[in-house]
């Protein structure tokens, strides 16, 4: 399977598991597909990205939400930029206050090295950097650099095993230097504490500082 067409009647995709193992899809079509013939966007949400030969990806302008697993299972993906328009992952906006949505947006990307995260990200969801829930086979364990631009630590939840981040051997998470203490003191980010490093983001919009 190399091409897919999405009808105008489509309103949502349950998860990236809907396309599990379909790594050879190189082009998609439909009224909600962008000009790159890779990105499916409905109601400001990025729902699907065609994986074949995709090495670098930047979320399109105007995308506010990322669906569950949307940037996972991309075997050639090396670099991801989640642009500053994006504020949340998964069904975050429909969750009750005590819930944290499943994230897993970056799992099973074996070549992924660098990730940049929106300055306006509020909710990243559980296991945001693709450990695959702690399983070696599905981990994006070669990630080296995460540029997490959000001055306020995004919600990821802290009810997952503390050993999840241990899969990453060379990981550094670069957070705004003025927010370093906030990240280190956040219950959500305690499992990643040893990976956090302050970074001077001179291009963060003034209202986001």
Description of the molecule:
There is one protein chain. This protein is mostly beta strands and 209 residues long. Helix content is 2%, strand content 20%. The chain has one helix at residues 180-184, and strands at residues 3-5, 27-29, 39-42, 45-49, 56-58, 65-66, 79-81, 88-89, 114-117, 145-148, 172-176, 196-199. The strands form 3 sheets. Strands 5-7-9-10-11-12 form a 6-stranded parallel sheet. A 4-stranded mixed sheet has the order 3-4-6-8, with no helix packed on it. A hairpin with a 2-residue loop joins strand 3 and strand 4. The protein is globular, with a radius of gyration of 16 Å. The protein starts with a strand and ends in a 10-residue tail after the last strand. Residues 92-99 have low confidence and may be disordered.
Structure in a nutshell:
The protein is mostly beta strands and 209 residues long.
Total number of beta strands: 12
The global form is globular
Mean of all residue-level pLDDT scores: 86
The succession of helices and strands, N to C, reads EEEEEEEEEEEHE
How many individual helices?
1
Rg result: 16 Å
Helical fraction: under 10%
Distance between the termini: 45 Å
Low-confidence stretches: 92-99
Largest sheet, strands/sense/barrel? 6 strands, parallel
Strand order of the largest sheet: 5-7-9-10-11-12
Strand content: 15-25%
Q: What class do helices, strands and sheet pairing give? A: mainly beta
């Amino acid at each position: 399977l190399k091409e897919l067409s999405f009808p105008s009647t489509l309103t949502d995709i349950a998860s990236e598991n809907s396309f599990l193992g379909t790594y050879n899809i190189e082009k998609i079509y439909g009224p909600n597909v962008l000009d790159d013939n890779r990105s499916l966007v409905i109601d400001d949400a990025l729902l699907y990205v065609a994986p074949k030969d995709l090495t670098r990806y930047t979320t399109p302008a105007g995308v506010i939400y990322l669906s569950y697993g949307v940037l996972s299972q991309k075997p050639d993906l090396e670099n991801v930029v989640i642009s500053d328009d994006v504020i949340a992952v998964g069904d975050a906006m429909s969750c009750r206050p005590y819930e944290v949505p499943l994230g897993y947006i970056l799992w099973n990307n074996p070549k992924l090295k660098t990730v940049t995260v929106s300055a306006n990200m509020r909710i990243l969801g559980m296991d945001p950097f693709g450990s695959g829930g702690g399983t070696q086979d599905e981990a994006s364990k070669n990630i080296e650099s995460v540029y997490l631009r959000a001055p306020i630590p995004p919600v990821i939840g802290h009810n997952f095993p503390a050993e999840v981040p241990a899969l990453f051997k060379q990981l550094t998470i670069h957070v705004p230097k003025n927010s370093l203490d906030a990240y280190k003191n956040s219950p959500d980010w305690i499992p990643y504490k040893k990976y956090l490093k302050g970074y001077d983001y001179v291009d963060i919009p003034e209202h986001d500082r």
